[in-house]
Amino acid sequence: MNSSLDVLQALSPSAEAPVAPADPIAAVTHPDPYPWYRQLARTRPFHYDATLKLWVAASAAAVAEVLDHPDARVRPPGQPVPPALAGGPAGQLFGRLIRMNDGPAHAALKSIVLRRLAGLDLGLVRVRAHALAAGLPRMADDDAHEATRWMFTLPVLTVADLLGLPFERDADGHVPTRVAGFVSTFAMAMSPLATPAEVEAGAAAAQWLTRWAHDCAPAAPAGSLLQTLSQDTALAGIDAPTMIANAVGLMIQACEATAGLTGNTLVHLARTGQLPGPADPVDAQVAQVARLDPPVQNTRRFMAADAILCGQPVRANDAVLVLLAAASHDDAGRDGAAAAARPWTFGAGRHGCPGDALAQVLAASTVQALLSRGIRPARLADRVRYRPSVNARIPQFSAQP
Ligand code: HEM
To answer: What residues are in contact with ligand 1 under a 6 Å CB criterion?
Structure first.
């Protein structure tokens, strides 16, 4: 297997060093932000960025401290839902997600979701993903188009299947992909970069997804995630709309970040020129990419009270940008136990991702399925750009000339 240094060099797009990112938001979609992140973690582990009007946590220690702080919340005080989504079905769905809530309601549901996701048989997940991949026809000759379509489709369909949502295959045995389209539309509407038209489409998607999950829940097969979540939440006194929203939420959480992990792994394969094999299995390559070219580069916290954070006095309402990607590249966080721990891209603390192991299996299955369909990573990576985003690093492959 490659050393981290080899992989880092391989991930660097060219010998010519690109201009450093202007700020931590620009870093998300920069061709090679990692030397800059490393320097930031070393020299400015926790600082105030007056231009962005955000505190920035960059070292592994600072990131851990912010994510563990009891007053560091996932939403700004008094704004449970972004104003663009408020008052409609997209806002209702958003406001019920555990990802977007703190306190006792979050804790009760989180422990149920954690337990049920931890109980998944990941070998079976691979088998299900493989079976769904077999039902996705190749639609275009162009590798870029096909890779992009699969990155955003196969992981979401697999989660829908694990939930126990029904797929009626057509006469040719093809799996319908509509649900993945709705999930991706909703995920896009949640971005602060969403246009009014995208927000409107997100509302329709939220309505469709919620109704579908609600209508299918009573018939969800025994042992499926939707059935077990219904059972556990009913016992815990959690209402049905919240349960349904969070079942849909699993598909939403699986969408963009897993697409990014899949895409970044394809870029990695192209740049190292090493296709997965017995000596370097795809799972190991996905795990390396999760650390070294992570799909979720940052997350945010909002202070609910005045506090001392990383030795600095911060005020209620202050926002903190938590640079997961910088923590991943922090030399001080890379040795020993910290290196063995799960990748920073999955967050940490109360809101840490409960789908980390599942996500890596989904990305590995998608990469494997694409390679089996004849996608050549080398043809994808010469002209990689990244989708506009403030936190997710998702390659946008261009059609071959
Ligand atoms: C590569 C793929 C993924 C990445 C990088 C990722 C990353 C993250 C991160 C960073 C958070 C925490 C955000 C924060 O603390 O502000 C999170 C939360 C969450 N993720 Fe993932 N995730 C991925 C895939 C998945 C999948 C496949 C699922 C489940 C099907 C999932 C379910 C969740 C849930 C339910 C939460 C909310 C947890 C909470 O707020 O307590 N994620 N994820």
So the answer is: 74, 98-99, 110, 113, 159, 249-250, 253-254, 257-258, 261, 295-296, 299, 345-347, 351, 353-355, 358-359, 362
